[in-house]
Design a protein that fits this description.
4 copies of one chain form a homotetramer. In chain A, 33% of the residues lie in helices and 29% in strands. A 7-stranded mixed β-sheet of chain A has the order 7-6-5-8-9-10-11. In chain A, 47% of the residues are buried. The mean pLDDT of chain A is 93. Chains A and C meet through helix 1 and strand 2 of A and helix 1 and strand 2 of C.
Chain lengths: 287, 287, 287, 287
Amino acid sequence: MTAGPQDQACLVVQGPDRPGIVAAVSAFVARHHGNIVSLDQYSDDPEGGEFFQRLVLHHPGLRAALPELQADLAETLEPFGLQGRITDLSVPPRMAVLASTSAHCLLDLLWRHRGGELPVSVPMVISNHPDLADDVRTFGIPFVHVPSQGADKAAAEAEILRLLVGNVDVVVLARYMQILSGDFLQKIGVPVINIHHSFLPAFIGAAPYRKAKERGVKLIGATAHYVTEDLDEGPIIEQDVVRVTHADSAADLQRRGADVERAVLSRAVLWHAQQRVFRSGNHCIVF
Amino acid sequence: MTAGPQDQACLVVQGPDRPGIVAAVSAFVARHHGNIVSLDQYSDDPEGGEFFQRLVLHHPGLRAALPELQADLAETLEPFGLQGRITDLSVPPRMAVLASTSAHCLLDLLWRHRGGELPVSVPMVISNHPDLADDVRTFGIPFVHVPSQGADKAAAEAEILRLLVGNVDVVVLARYMQILSGDFLQKIGVPVINIHHSFLPAFIGAAPYRKAKERGVKLIGATAHYVTEDLDEGPIIEQDVVRVTHADSAADLQRRGADVERAVLSRAVLWHAQQRVFRSGNHCIVF
Amino acid sequence: MTAGPQDQACLVVQGPDRPGIVAAVSAFVARHHGNIVSLDQYSDDPEGGEFFQRLVLHHPGLRAALPELQADLAETLEPFGLQGRITDLSVPPRMAVLASTSAHCLLDLLWRHRGGELPVSVPMVISNHPDLADDVRTFGIPFVHVPSQGADKAAAEAEILRLLVGNVDVVVLARYMQILSGDFLQKIGVPVINIHHSFLPAFIGAAPYRKAKERGVKLIGATAHYVTEDLDEGPIIEQDVVRVTHADSAADLQRRGADVERAVLSRAVLWHAQQRVFRSGNHCIVF
Amino acid sequence: MTAGPQDQACLVVQGPDRPGIVAAVSAFVARHHGNIVSLDQYSDDPEGGEFFQRLVLHHPGLRAALPELQADLAETLEPFGLQGRITDLSVPPRMAVLASTSAHCLLDLLWRHRGGELPVSVPMVISNHPDLADDVRTFGIPFVHVPSQGADKAAAEAEILRLLVGNVDVVVLARYMQILSGDFLQKIGVPVINIHHSFLPAFIGAAPYRKAKERGVKLIGATAHYVTEDLDEGPIIEQDVVRVTHADSAADLQRRGADVERAVLSRAVLWHAQQRVFRSGNHCIVF
């Protein structure tokens, strides 16, 4: 488990923008003698828009003080109709990874996790194929094989829900080649992050590298987004591209795209774990 | 007029790939005592694919020798069923620009042209609005206003054809906000290059920056392509992107996208003028 | 003159970091009924470091209220030992440009200014060569030729000071090929921004493209920085690079580098004009 | 071991540029009934410069024909005073990796190798620390610990030479924190590739990320180069950069730089293994 910094709290606030919010939150911090380490805020429209704020504060003895902080924050935000939370950054969110047979995105996450770059814990990796079991267990992380063939889809989803619900705070699809049902997304109850192997909204759906080759594009990309019921239409967290040429075959595109996929997914997971990502309609605010 | 290098010829070859082409072309160059300055080639499939070659050669006294070179080249390529041409790089292609009211792409081209970066001549700029007349004439280039309102479309196209046919080797649409008819494309008889203000095939059609803002993408782009009858579907010459954030408004995207548009269009025009671009089906090979 | 947004004030604060600053500034904004449009802050060390904050606020009737706001701000910051100012964003800073014979950086600035992208006014362009006079005057901007040959350096600097002191808020060196004396920098009394045609600290001094070609680098760059007495050592505002290959000649590097230079300089000038750049020792904080 | 494509030969030629080389090489390919898959060439000066060519050709029954091809190639090139070789691409070069305690560059290479992306064999990894033994052996690759403390340097180098000479075709320093002596470089007799954690020539020597933080740069980079006796001065194969801000600590720079380092080193190793890199003085030509 990679612990975050000690005695640092992350305060996030979201809701209708109104004058006085920043002053109220600042006063909250001041009366608890917190020291602001960083502060980001954004309003998508200064008149009647939505307001987003992320604040990291240093507070000695945070763990003991947290319940009181949480209670006072709720009182502070209530008159504004805002939603918010304050959490201890030394407690990493629990992340499950779903994979299939491709190793690159999964191993990039596990590597970075082992190297202390990702402030998450990884209770479990689940795959619908057994291929990556050894790779995962090398990192000391449990690997569970949940096959998902043909008519088994509901059964497989039920099995995954049984393993994950209550045990994880976020699910990451690291080239998991199954479409999750709306029912699953509702029951899992935590954000699900996917990596799509194209620069969305270009090349929605299957086989984007083949389509990219056919269209003769000069850049290929990858997109990390929250999963919604609409395939490849969820809020985008991060995207990036790499330059290709006519001389690159579809296999070359796939190979070069794999590097972009793992970089984009790792950045998206990092930012989510750091609570830098706010969802608003079909968009993401990323501080 | 920006002249290209003296005594340098550009030889381009395209057609079915067969063993012996490179040897035959090299022998052609050798028996005319040309010195190869650069050579690029590509075959999209070594077995039964299409072959593309671009060769720049230094040949003292090129202008006088050109007719003989052209005749011998035709004989050299004929047995292979290849198409090719050899041209004098000191004779720049003639480029007309069609614009509307946006200045950035047009002025970038004229500016680079004046600075000697674009080996073309610019006999004329045509616009369906008068706004840019002074800007264009500052460069010593004729500006012709051909309005294109409502039912006039056929009349306007006829007027443009009358001005351009026989006088230009390439037409560039520098944010020309009119869709050209298939009839026009056929009659103009030279390549037409367009800049589309998105990373195609994402955001085909009108208002791509607004659509990009709505979709919440993290990169916006521009695409230079040859114009075909299928809107935004022609062969892509060049693309690029720039990173944006949630804090960028649709107007910001438009402003930042304008920088990408002019850079991408200028590169595409340069490469076309240097005969680096080969069309093959709906693709471009760019050396 | 490009005016900034009406009724928006920019508040910047810099100084020793202490608990309570954010609360005090927020309270200041709240008691003047300002609405926060954006807020950025940074502390280079939460314990004993330096604090930087930039805040844009909407305040109807700003022009009339500004003196009172300024007085109250001074009182608010005084107990913290902070420096700060609040200014009307609709009043653009006055920018003089110094150039020599290269047009690309100068014209990029003037173009963007004319297009409303740069919130500055441009009272004057000064050059030590007459070449760019017509280009500048086309934009309706005064051009003054101040030659600077041999022993005239002090005389030329004195002439420039006479023209600029009191008339400008920032001076931009757009490929001005003269080194300004320490005496000049002191007397000019406003920030001076330079564009260096390399990725500093690589290739300090003259002829960086030639040096880059000799070293065989695979990327070339440009650096915009505040000018100090130490040549090419001032605080960096912005940098960027572009990929090159062995096939690019030193002239190609210069041509491709010119695109990076103008882009980097324009971004740096924009950010400076928007008061996004804070100097701290030999660094810049850029919000 | 990752084998390259079957029945494909790589022909590389380097030496003084003269008319007729391309024709002679093409004739060589034609008379052996080879089919050209790709061809790149470059002359650093069409008049009296140096010529470089890389040609991949398909030749059924290559392995049996190779000795005859090699003999004929030598005869073909001899009159031109050129150096060249023709090799079987299905036989991968043997690559040893030297590492210390940092895993990122080493594991990226081994991972790509395992995934079939790097056409090399890896007979051995040597480190002056035991830390990475398990990681390496997981890939089925021998790990040898050769400590190099204090006065042992000559002894350690002798031990490494004993292990490697005759057994490898290239040595890669994957963040190997020891400076190799000129004597070692001479005796090893094969190219040595290093990754330097800065955008050379900026920040030569130790602690480049700390220096980058101190200088306040806005981009950090990495450079892969051939090792020569002059520290950080060898011919550059590849470079890349990533954008950073004032908010990134020196540790952040190191973490983000690590991603650039491994990407740059892996590309350099790939291109070297594919015989795309030609050394010429202190430069690299990379096809």
